[in-house]
Amino acid sequence: MAKRIEAWEIADAVDGVGAFPQIQTHRGGNWNIADPRSAYGLIRWDGLPAKPPPFGKLMLALGARLTDVLSAASISGPGFLVSKRVLQLFAELDLGEHGVYPARVGAGARKSYGYFWVHIANDVAARVDVRSSEYRTMKRPFIRGGKPVRFASATALNKHIVTAERGVRNFVRPTHITLRGAPSTYPDLFRYLDTRLYASERLKAAFDREHVSGVQFRPARISFSAR
User: Fold this and answer.
1) Overall pTM surpassing 0.85 (yes/no)
2) Shared-domain flag, residues 7 and 43
3) Each residue's pLDDT tens digit in the chain (227 positions)?
4) How far apart are CA 52 and CA 34, in angstroms?
């Protein structure tokens, strides 16, 4: 039987950061959406960037707070834009497969700060017990609600996802994830299926202890099974 423990969804904070997203524009760099060498092209959900993304200078929006973790409208990928303080905190944790890429954040005409894009490449799909997990389907991604559904196998789930990507507006969100193996065999940050990242209790405790700003946690239902 799977043992249910507390784990967390982790994301950029929406409240208490002033303007959201905090980074809305940039100066310089390469942001050509059709260029695979651009920041858009290099930051993907399937693996690490092949080289440092050409961010240029990421500009803090008017009214936005400079927090430890910054939300950025133009960066879509599994990771976080973090200060040096958070990067040092990450060094105490097990991030598994990840990459660190420098970025400059500008505030006004003259101020500039050193930040880092930390890209998380830990997709745990191969270790999920799909039959014991629970999901919801919905007509649009990134929304709450939806219809509860279970899948008999990873093959059935993948078939559904492929159908959704071909234009049938029926997306999948996990509501209870059952992972094979002991919790100690997993990193402190990982992803599954969609744009959500999941954090261990250890990571949340470290962030709480250091009062890391610009991030939010929501309880997630994650179990670990010996099967």
Assistant:
1) yes
2) no
3) 444 456 899 999 999 999 999 999 999 999 999 999 999 999 988 889 999 999 999 999 999 999 999 999 989 889 999 999 999 999 999 999 999 999 999 998 889 999 999 999 999 999 999 999 999 887 665 556 678 899 999 999 988 877 655 555 567 889 999 999 988 899 999 999 866 899 999 999 999 999 999 999 999 999 988 76
4) 17
The SS3 call for residue 120 is strand
DSSP codes, 168-207? ---EEEEEEEEEES-GGGS-SEEE-SSS-EEE-HHHHHHH
Domain boundary among 120, 139, 172: 120
Distances from the Cα of 163 to the Cαs of 124, 125, 139, 192, in angstroms? 21, 18, 12, 18
170 and 74 both lie in a single domain: no
Are residues 111 and 160 located together in one domain of the fold?
Answer: no
8 A C-beta contact, residue 43 and residue 80 = no
Half-sphere exposure of 43 (CA within 13 A, CB side): 27
Final residue of a structural domain among 91, 120, 149: 120
76 and 148 belong to one structural domain: no
- Neighbour-count burial for 212-227, b at 16+ CB within 10 Å, e otherwise: bbbbebeebebbbeee
CB 61 within 8 A of CB 24: yes
* Residue where the block lists tokens 């969609």: 194
Our count of domains for the chain comes to 2
Q: Does 154 lie in the same domain as 99?
A: no
